[in-house]
Amino acid sequence: MELLQVVFGVAMGALVVYQVLSKWNEVWYRIANQSLPLPPGTMGWPLIGESIPFWKRGPDFITAHQRRFGSMFKTHLFGSATVVCTDSDVNKYLLASESKGILLGYPGTFSEMLGKWSTFSLYGSEHKAMRGALISLISASVLKEQLLPKIDEFMKSYLSNWSDKTLDFQKKSNEVVMLLVLKLVASTEDNIALTKELEEAMHQVSLSFFTVAINLPGTTYNKGLKARRKLVQMLGKIIEERRASKCSRNNDILDSLLKNSEDSNSVIQTDEQIIDQIIGFVLSGYETASIVLMMAVKYLHDHPLAQDELRKENLEIRKGKPENYTLNWDDYKSMSFTRAVVLEALRMASIGLGFLRRTTVDTEIKGYVIPKGWTVFVSTVEINKDPDTYPEPLKFNPWRWLKSNLESYQYFMLFGGGARLCPGKELGILEISIFLHYLVTRYRWEEIGENKIVRFPRVEAPDGLYYRLRDC
Ligand code: HEM
């Protein structure tokens, strides 16, 4: 009897502790923001909030909470009180409101890894100037005259001799994007050892963007910091050599940056600024472009009709050209179905689920207030799968991009919006389109084993994404 009482007492105690802990955050934040009408929602346990269910369920977590609480709900993610917004109008407003105090909300590790001169670390006029400098490096005329010929040359050679090989496209997609961008930036391709070192260090830095900042030997953060220091050293040496040689004819991004730095009116003056621009250039489009490329290969494998259509368009472009042809700007501009495949893969993959912002003032939206200092999760999960914009949203259907003008649609958010709209959008689409051109005009690919894609936290196949290629 006594034992039963003890068990009962412990169970009741545990229940009370559980109830107190699970309501702790909600009560705490309600007291701290007493007079403010906070959005509805649950905030989970102290410190961890609802991070675990969010991490486990990703898009489903957002959808379930949206059904329960509406398109603006509060939660607590990764140590911060957060409001998730899934409403297109509100999201558009949030992305366009940097001047009203709604700033980038990525963890500090993000700008530590990218550097203090990265656009991700700058605001206001400094951001505008640095962003302008970056845009001038990838303007339409630079893409057309300088970058397209290099991308074409690289892809043509990278995608050769793949017949009868089994390749892991998860690895390949990372590799192709990284090697290509290193070529565009610093023309390192002839120095294999240096390229490998740069590739490894850049990859290590990219792994540290969202890591916990614990600087102990062996942690991802510690490895990221070391890799960044190594990059700074290596890039510094390349810059020194270029300056010493005086007559560099690489015609790459680094040459343009060095030339800019000689102009006293240019915003980029110091080596530190040049290095941060290079690291930002390589890493801002690394993960995004490689995931889209990998997912495009997978979706095309799973949808033979789309693959046939893509092949038809690209064989037509190849028709009448000499054997070792080069794609030109008009060819790229005529790849409408190819572009549609890239955009559809990007929409379906919903890479990052959304964008992070933080409030620097109490911000009133739709009758609610997001208190100063909270994180705002601008969720694109629902927008990218909205059946009114994208009928049958779960279907891979590149044709939808041909039939309507979705790319200029005001709620198009695949490349962000407002002052932070992706400046590398056209470069990213160009890289993937040229890759797809050489892939479909040369090969067909069949799946080896059962490839299970993990959609969240990162879109990746747990043990690789294997395809066997044969000539078509
Ligand atoms: C398919 C490929 C790509 C996708 C899906 C993509 C997506 C995005 C998105 C959604 C944002 C906005 C983030 C936010 O507002 O929080 C962004 C920003 C950015 N992207 Fe891309 N991106 C791609 C390729 C590239 C490439 C190739 C570059 C190389 C230059 C690049 C450079 C940047 C930079 C520098 C920013 C920050 C802009 C700023 O702070 O003003 N992106 N990208």
Automatic annotation (TrEMBL):
Phylogenetic lineage: Eukaryota, Viridiplantae, Streptophyta, Embryophyta, Tracheophyta
Q: What is the protein's name according to its record? A: Cytochrome P450
Instruction: Specify the superkingdom.
Output: Eukaryota
> Which Pfam families is this protein grouped with?
p450 (PF00067)
- Could you provide one GO biological process annotation from this protein's UniProt record? brassinosteroid biosynthetic process
Cofactor(s) recorded for this entry are:
heme
Question: Keywords in UniProt for this one?
Answer: Heme, Iron, Metal-binding, Monooxygenase, Oxidoreductase
InterPro entries with a match to the protein in the record: Cyt_P450, Cyt_P450_CS, Cyt_P450_E_grp-IV, Cyt_P450_sf
Q: Which CDD domains match?
A: CYP90-like
Fetch the PROSITE patterns from UniProt: CYTOCHROME_P450 (PS00086)
